[in-house]
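Quick illustration for those who missed Monday's session on complexes.
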Amino acid sequence: MSKNEMWGGRFAQGPSEIMKDINVSIDFDRRLYAQDIMASTAHARMLAERGIIAQEDAKAIIAGLAQVKAEIESGQFTFSRELEDIHMNVEERLKQIIGAPAGRLHTARSRNDQVATDFRLWVRDAIDRLDGGLVQFQRALVRRAGEHAATVMPGFTHLQTAQPTTFGHHLMAYVEMAARDRARLASARRTTNMNPLGSAALAGTSFPIDREMTTASLAFSEPMRNSLDGVSSRDFALEFLGACAILATHLSRLAEEIVLWTSPAFGFVRLPDAWSTGSSIMPQKRNPDAAELVRAKCARVTGSLVTLLGVMKALPLTYSKDMQEDKQAVFDAADSAELALAAMAGMVADLTVNAAAMRAMAGSAFSTATDLADFIVRVLGKPFREAHHITGRIVALAEARGCGLCELSLADMQSVEPGLTADVMSVLGVEASAGSRTSLGGTSPQRVMEQVQLWQERLK
Ligand code: ARG
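Prediction with arginine bound:
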């Protein structure tokens, strides 16, 4: 067992094999390589600027780091588990390339502020990618909503047909959710975009570093003002995971609806071959696997949030190795959320709509009963509670007759409420019902188109 090169000075023996296995993070934290090199470059430049290391050494370090990056990106770099993590892998290769000056890079910093910096940079990028994915998702929804602003479908409560709505209105509900998801990510971005570099191990450093300089070169908004907080806080990652979990929850609801809508029992929507899978035994099957997987990815993302909350709970200040477990949770959540978003945007863009099936179900189950009650209020001047009662009796009559409200004769209706007149028929159709809901935020095609146009402008 060989001793560790980085801290072997006070050790007589190297680690056991199992110690290495539990300690090593290079298998996953290699994903931080670009951020690690970016932060090291900024640090080296600052050290030279402040006269802490020589300009020539900084030049050699920066050029060497660029070479390491190129080697990683071209697949020539060999990651070593012996070197534990991305920070030591990069530094060791730098030493092979430039020799002794490499040893000066770690002046006035620690892996504790280094990893906090790298991770914040990574999360910041992930937020920006997810925001782009959300915009694509919103664009797909708005485009389809514009096509289907007047396509009547049943609106549900308790998954029971409730009142007619339109497919466009339904899709636009997800545009609003996605807008709030974007706002949550923007908030997480503000929390993330603060610079911990210079916190060093935990207490800061005695070297005359310039934290404003690294803050500017890494495009952080400000330096973190407490070094203990700088190395030990992960609330930025929790906030990111919280935003991802809510976003994935929104996607899972639409995914579930696509699963329902594509089932023959609903038949509202068809996914093209590109978004369907078949069955190895049942030749007739078309399964919405992508939607089902989005539904399940949500559980993984939520799981990641719970994982990191658990890791951080009751952890005393400052850094503890527990915090190394932050990365897989965040990487997995970001990957899952990104893929789920892309899949949902694709399905929304490509699905085809069976308007006849939607319309048929929209008119079932006495879905315009509220319109009848509203008519009784408006035309006969009854209080809503009484109108509700009268309508309930008319629904019971239709149910007994085995027909819809539209199919009852006026005489039938008058047997319950003598004041009803022939124009009641005009409010019982599904188009009339949807069209009448013109209140702000309502389902009428006219209101939906206004929202579509507003969002088209915003998403330009
Ligand atoms: N691989 C470590 C992590 O991800 C880097 C920081 C190590 N710091 C330490 N004091 N052992 O957290």
